[in-house]
Amino acid sequence: MKRIGQHSLGLVADTDEEASEIWWRYRQPLVESVAAESGFYAPTRDRYEAELHTGALYIGSPETVAHKIAATARDLRLSRFDLEYDIMHLPRNARARTIELFGTEVAPRVRQLLAADTAA
Fold this sequence. Notes:
alpha/beta, globular, about 65% helix, 4 helices, 3-stranded parallel β-sheet, single chain
């Protein structure tokens, strides 16, 4: 079987709300600038919220992000997942918290979820 990896944008915080607010605060001005230059859609909070649930952004609490990664890993048969968390000049504390939570809570939870699938 071939190895397949995915590289996606994301942020992990203690709660879904905290992660969503931090990402939006730094993403919105960047997307707005790119939209004006390139003719892309103007960023709206509604579109952003939809992307959190059904799009390629992995933003939320450790449990939310773990479930989304596990679902993607199942669907695409991933052997590797890489979270890009340093985009749009996020504050150092948000990046550090993402790294900490990803290593201590998200990755172990993804392994549990995928192991449960294998056992079933």
